[in-house]
Amino acid sequence: MIPYGRQQITDDDIEAVVRVLNSNYLTQGPYTQFFEQKIMSYCNARYAIAVNSATSALHISCLALGVGVGDSVWTSPITFVASANCARYCGADVDFVDIDPHSYNMCIDKLTEKLECAEKLNKLPKVVIPVHMCGQSCDMAKIFALSQKYGFKIIEDASHAIGAKYLNNPVGSCQYSDITVLSFHPVKIITSGEGGMALTNNVEISKRLKLLRSHGVTRESLEMTSQPMEETWQYQQISIGYNYRMTDIHAALGVSQMDRLDAYVAIRKRIADTYDCKLKELPIIMPQRADYTNSAWHLYVIRIDNDRTDRRQKEVLHALHNMGVAATIHYIPVYRQPYYESLGYKKGYCPQAERYFSEAMSIPIFPGLSEKDQLEVVGSLEKALR
Ligand SMILES: *Cc1c(COP(=O)(O)O)cnc(C)c1O
Q: At 302, which helix (H) or strand (E)?
């Protein structure tokens, strides 16, 4: 089977991990710091806080921005469930802004309308979490302008988008957001096994994130809230926190993979260019490239164009599987999950997301995809749509 995505591990990666295993630090230590510094300088952000997953990063980001019971957090329905769950962890309500049918990102017009409406009802969101679907950035300047008008905070879920650009700045620079979250899960652009990071330019937010990452415990006497004892072993728990630390074993893999980030994005783009060229005659809707962003091409999503073919998405997916191509769907609209339905969400809530869900499929795109396998995917799609 040709998967839709797969990590690539080199001998350098393996050596880097083995070096940590032979060192004094296994848990958060010098490699974690080095990984944070590398990402910070690549993304052009002032602070980076490495954690054990993007899910953890989303959770503590919500907490660091003060999300709690009675608050509302808005995100896109076409995302992994973690983008919404983070608000639920904090006891907040989640709501969904329908997608733009061209970029598959949160629709700015829908967001604007929903904010106007929420203002009248006195139910404005505390935080909005735009998701850079497939690796293509949302139009952040516009979302930022709305945040200034309506007073909400922004967490970018850039799990798909390390290595992408928005208006010539790297995604992660937090130019138009309070926090940006990255994922290093193996299917993403680079991996640390499991892992995530929160980036911010705000020193206060960075301090809160560090406390939340590690039990609410500080060793900085200036941060201590009761009289410090001025002993080297002194530590104080000044808030509640978690154990969300990244280990140095994971960080070493991440550091090693960072060296190939640009090369990986370039390969992904080349694969996308080839698909763009070879699939354009098929009865499908091709990915559209917004002019304000260079995608990291985490996913290559095509949509069956039912104006031009009678073939249905599910038939095509089955046919592809039978020919050895593990195409899949990203994502089921989050509010259609039984858990969110139990909170009252109903079918039909976000029509564009549901239409997308009934037509879309992700086809293989990853650095190790050979030219031969890519042509195999193209040939299989041609057959499946015939
Ligand atoms: C993968 C992913 C996450 C979760 O990442 P983990 O590192 O696995 O916790 C969150 N949001 C989006 C959009 C993702 O694709």
A: strand 300-304
Site to substitute for ligand 1 among 52, 185, 194, 328, most atoms within 8 A of C-beta: 185
Claim: this prediction has a pTM higher than 0.90: yes
Decide if 286 contacts 272 (C-beta within 8 A): no
What is the sign of the dihedral through the CA atoms of 155, 157, 162 and 163?
negative
Among 219, 243, 217, 234, residue whose Cα is nearest residue 56: 243
**Residue 114, H or E segment:** helix 108-120
- 127-129 and 284-285 strand pairing: unpaired
For residue 258, give the 3-state DSSP assignment: helix
CA atoms 223, 225, 229, 234: torsion sign: negative
Q: Position 295: which residue type?
A: S
Paired with 214 in beta bridges are 243
160 lines ligand 1 (CB under 6 A): yes
Ligand 1 lined by 131 (C-beta under 6 Å):
yes
Q: Which residue has the tokens 């907040």?
A: 92
Are 132 and 164 in contact, with CB atoms under 8 Å apart?
A: yes
Candidates 231, 199, 251; CA nearest to 61 is 199
Residue 200 DSSP code: E
The dihedral through the CA atoms of 372, 373, 374, 377 has a sign that is: positive
- Cα 155 to Cα 73, 138, 161, 170, 228: the distances in Å are 10, 12, 14, 16, 34
Question: What gap in Å lies between CA 127 and CA 336, rounded to an integer?
Answer: 22
Q: At what angle do helices 203-213 and 54-64 cross, to 10 degrees?
A: 120
pLDDT in tens, 170-184: 999 999 999 999 999
What pLDDT, in 10s, does the model give residues 25-40?
A: 999 999 999 999 999 9
Atom index in ligand 1 nearest the CA of residue 56 equals: 9
